Amino acid sequence: MQRLIRISEVFAPLHEEILSRCGIRSAKRLGREYWLFSCDEAWDAAQHEASLWLRWNMRLDHAWPCVPEKTEDFIEKSAMALMRKFATAPLQQVMVGPLLSGSPHPLYKKMAAQLQQRLRMEFPLPCRDRDPELQDPEGLTMFVLLGKEGLFASVSTPRECGGFYAGGSKHISHRAAHSISRAGAKVAEALHFLRLHRPPLAESSQWLELGASPGGMTAELLERGFEVIAVDRAPMDARVASHPRLQSFAENARTFQPPRGTLYDALLCDMNGSAEESLEVVISKISCLRSGAIVVFTMKTHRAADLSEILALHQRVLRQAKIGGLVFLAQTHLTYNRNEFTLFWKVP
Ligand SMILES: C[S@@+](CC[C@H](N)C(=O)[O-])C[C@H]1O[C@@H](n2cnc3c(N)ncnc32)[C@H](O)[C@@H]1O
Fold it and tell me: pLDDT tens, 170-221?
């Protein structure tokens, strides 16, 4: 069988090593971030620690290697082939995207939109116009990626592949009106990703945020209707500081005692410094979190010199969280993460 995986371009110097550590000996590169490789059925990303870098991981069910822009009636021929092949699949949605993410070639962006529209008309989808985020993470979706190397498709679940959109990324602008910094888009992306693993938090949820200044993430949480207790040694930006649903504390998060009597629904930690020290602070706050609360943690890796050190750090962080009483939910590398990863746990 063949699989299509994606690794962010920001890790370009590590690409070869990541592939090799995932047990992939030979792979064909597609676009800037995708690789196509052959493997046996038993290949399981989860068995390789370096799968931490895989943003998308899709079993390939149909491929048409060709040059779409030079292929007559490409959209129609692709649609017919996919309709024949997956005629009886109980699909919830069809998601088509370009192989080049970020700033895709306008032609492939347009072709992806046309093919998606064509396929959505043909398949008896329960809610073809519904927000892609409302897909069942465990339901069957047809994912199609296309680019100058051809068309690559699968019928899989969003959770198996690692996203609701083909290739995994939802475009989230960091220029929203309420935005204070790019970090706002990072938490928006993290919450989008988390839907693959659990239902979204209720609007009235209360967040404890450690390392909140200047408030990029805080602004995004407030925009979503959440209440936030923000802690940072540095001050909050004036644009959020007096928000009625925000209480901010200019303190060391290590010694900070949250107001008594509140059990929080979620904890967000974006503190800089050592990941293990930050996680220690997070664990010290577990008693302030309700059962089932989620923890969203940015694992900073800037002190790790190479891939082996990042992997070792990651393993230590996972162990530390488990011993500390957190239950692992998911992990990913987001578009707005540079050399860092976002990890999710829940409180039992
Ligand atoms: C990457 S910045 C956070 C950016 C922020 N999340 C945003 O969205 O704008 C890291 C922050 O962690 C804070 N920090 C690191 N260690 C801390 C500690 N022990 N107590 C309080 N704040 C801490 C720093 O002051 C810094 O503002």
Answer: 887 777 777 777 889 999 999 999 999 999 999 999 999 999 999 999 999 9
* 214 Cα to the center of ligand 1, angstroms: 8
Kindly state whether residues 87 and 227 are assigned to the same domain.
no
**pLDDT over 90, % of the chain:** 87
Nearest CA to ligand 1 atom 5: 212
The answer to whether residue 103 scores a pLDDT higher than 70 is: no
Looking at the structure, tell me whether residues 146 and 197 fall in a common domain.
no
CATH number, residue 138? 3.30.2130
Closest residue to atom 24 of ligand 1, CA basis: 211
Cα separations (Å) of 24 from 16, 38, 55, 167, 239? 9, 8, 16, 19, 48
Distance 209 CA to ligand 1 centre (A): 9
Write the pLDDT tens digit of every residue in 117-159: 999 999 989 887 788 999 999 999 999 999 999 999 999 999 9
Rounded to two decimals, the pTM is: 0.94
Domain count, the chain: 2
Q: Is residue 333 domain-shared with residue 189, that is, in the same domain?
A: yes
Same domain, 309 and 189: yes
Tell me: the pLDDT tens digits for 222-266? Answer: 999 999 999 999 999 999 999 999 999 999 999 999 888 889 999
Q: Do 330 and 188 share a structural domain?
A: yes
* Mutation choice for ligand 1 from 189, 239, 272, 284, CB with most ligand atoms inside 8 A: 272
The CATH number for 199's domain is 3.40.50.150
Nearest-atom index, ligand 1, CA of 220: 8
Which residue has 């779409």 as its token pair?
Answer: 68
Angle separating helix axes 275-284 and 307-324, nearest 10 degrees = 10
Provide the residue range defining the domain that includes 287.
Answer: 183-346
CA-based angle 174:179:181, to the nearest 5? 70
Closest C-alpha among 218, 264, 265 to residue 243: 218
Number of the ligand 1 atom closest to the C-alpha atom of 218: 8
